[in-house]
Each structure stands twice: as C-alpha cells, then as structure tokens.
Amino acid sequence: MSGGVPRLSVLIPTFGDAHTLALTLSTLCAQTLDPDLFEVVVVNDGSDPLPYAELAAAAYPFRFRFDSLPANLGRAAARNQAVRLAAGELVCFLDSDVLAEPHLLARHLAFHDGRDGPSVLIGKRYEGDWAVLAAAQAGEPVTLDLVRPVHEDFRFRVPGRDSEPDQWLSGAPWVFALTNNVSMPRRTVLDAGLFDEAYGARWGFEDTDLAYRIHHVLGDAGFAYDGLAAGFHVPAVRDLTNLAGDYQENLELFRRKHRSLAAELVDMPAPSDVTRKIRHYRRALACCAELGLGRLPEVSSLLGAELAGAVLCQAFGTDEVALGQGSATYDHGRPESETNLHLLGVWSPYPDGTFGTVVSVDVWRFMEQRELSRFLRLALRQAREVVLVYTSGPAEKAFTADVPALTSPDFFGSLLRRRYPQARTDHFGDVTLFRVTAS
Asked: Which stretches make up the Glycosyltransferase 2-like domain (predicted)?
C-alpha cells in the first residue's frame, strides 16, 4: 500500500455488528480495484468498542481508518463523521452487512471517471441467503455466479431493469439511492448539507432524504444505475415491529420536511411503484393545467356554503375565488406557499378537524384506487364533509389511456355508497357533486 491519497473512500457505519463487518471487510480485501486507489472508513455508532478491537487493529491491503461516536446517534451521524474523515474525492456508501462483489469498487470508480460532472451511481444489493453467507465464511469469492432469482434486490423487480434503467429511474431516481451501495463525489454530499441527523437512531429515510436533496440540484441526469456494481445483503434476524415503527416516524419527518407530491407518495411497497405513480400524477396534473380542467371558478356557485368556511380545496384557479378564513389549497397551478401546498392529498400536514369541508374538483378522478381510498380516509378526519366535484362535457374528451380518469359518475356513486353508505349524489347539469360526511 502506497502513501498516496486514495481516489475513492468506502464509508461504512456500524453498530453492534462486528461479525458481519468482518465479512464485509474480507470482501473489500478481494476487490479487483488497485488497493492504492481506495480507502475504507468505518465509524462505530456508539456501540461497545471491544468486539471491534481486532478488526480495528488488523492490517489491510488498503488504507483503513476506524472511528467511534461517543453515543448511539444514528446512521446519519455515523455517515457524516465518515464523510468528514474521508480523503477520497469520491465516496461509496456501503452497509456493514453488505458483501461486495469483487468488481464493485472498480465499477463505481470507472463510472465517475466517465462522467463530465457530479453524478450518483446506484448499485445493486442482492438479498443474500445462507448459501451466500456460507461462501463468504469459507473465503470464496462472492461473485454474481451465486445469484439466484430469490436473491433479487427488492428495488429492481421491474421490466427492463438492466437494459432500460432510465425508464424506471425517471422522475424520482432518489427513491432508489439507498446507502447500502451508492457512490458520488464527496463534494456533492457536503454541498447538500450532509445527512440530516434529525432522523436519529431510528431506521430509515436518512439516505432517501440526502438523495432527494441532491436530486433537486442534479436532476434525473445526475443519477445512474449499474446492476453489475453489486453486493449481497447478509441474512439477519430483525425486530420488524420496531423497524416498522421507526420507518413510520422517519417517513413522517421526511414528508413534513419536503411537503411535496413526491414525498407523500414514497410510502409504497417498492421504489419502482413510487416512481411510476409520481410520473402518473405529474402527467395528470399537467394535463389539468394545460386543458383548463379541475377549475374551481367554474363550479364555485354550487359550493357557496362550503367555500365560505374553512375549506381545504384541491383544484386549479383557487386564487380566483374567495375562500373562508382558515382555508388552504392544493393548487398545482399556483406557486407553493404556506397555505398552498403541491400535494395530492394522501398525506397532509394539517391535523384532524382543521377544516369544515375538503373539496376536490376533478383531480380526484385521476387517482388510482389506493390513493383515492387514502385521500377519502384522510379528508374525513380533517373535515366534517368531503365534496368530490365531477365535471362532464368537454373535459371527458381530454382523458387518454396514458392519463386515465373516471368517466362514469353513476357507477362511481354506487362504489362510493358501498364503502360510505351516508354518501349522497347531487346533479347540476354537467356537474355532479358526491358528498360524504364523517360518520
């Protein structure tokens, strides 16, 4: 190992898992990348240092540094400390339970050497099983020859995964940029303000939050995917109940920080579904704006009593109608503000009982089943009544297969009453109002 400055810093947080870290380090010793070109920085997040003593004192073919935080401050704090200690111009974030395929670091470095500007490379983390673990423990190379269908990374179970990644990354690549295997320039992390340590020692979203902020600067073009920059996740025994609680608490923090349509939709089974839905709803809202659909002024005369009170109104043209004191809007045709959020309405920062009425003009018709159900449940907690406004006529001609929307109000009325027997339907020519009151 030479005394030169490494190009790439591999940054690993750890907490109470020296046993898996030892395996991870062994796979980093087997990298095809010249060890003079990279270093490994491990930061112990306040766990007992004794089990790490042997690893910290060992000799490695690459430059190695081990540091500890004074207490369990969380992955964000541990990774921030690793970034501060890093000597490389590039950083590759790995978890302490990820076994690196021999070409992983070489592929990360080659990617950045081939880019003109700062970028984020998302690698793959297969879900390893006992066979993969046995191979690693036996000192065998952890190569892609071990991959079986059962190992597939949950993030990338999408058509065209490797041949056309831009199709599923498009719109929200930050959803996939988890720090179990991702690289970027160190300066990019610093310029983004590092990881937000408010996520604490809870599990989840500190890496999604950083990637979200970086995406605001770099855009889609600044993110890429390489399925051959791969690692394997060591099997684990986890407390899924506590992890689910951590996830929900940090998800709420993430949404409150960013208050955007993308942030509210991130709670999905798989990232590929998140990006698809973000693209779908952005197209739907753009269609409304372009064609003049979902406009409140055209139906305001039918909603006089509702609009005079505190109302949460999802529509376009809301600034053209006088709304009651304490009202707020989800109007994507106006600039965002404290009282006009660019949300879909499946999550909201407003507490239960804030409004007298929640009104949606046509936008609700674009919602898929999951989002419409969540929208109604949330709205009926926030207000005494929900009014869904359906406008027929020219608007229906605008809907296409790419932007599907409900076009059968009578059938929808039957669906609505099956779930909400108290719902009623009022017809006013080309306008139908579906009213649902809290039971």
From this structure: 9-132
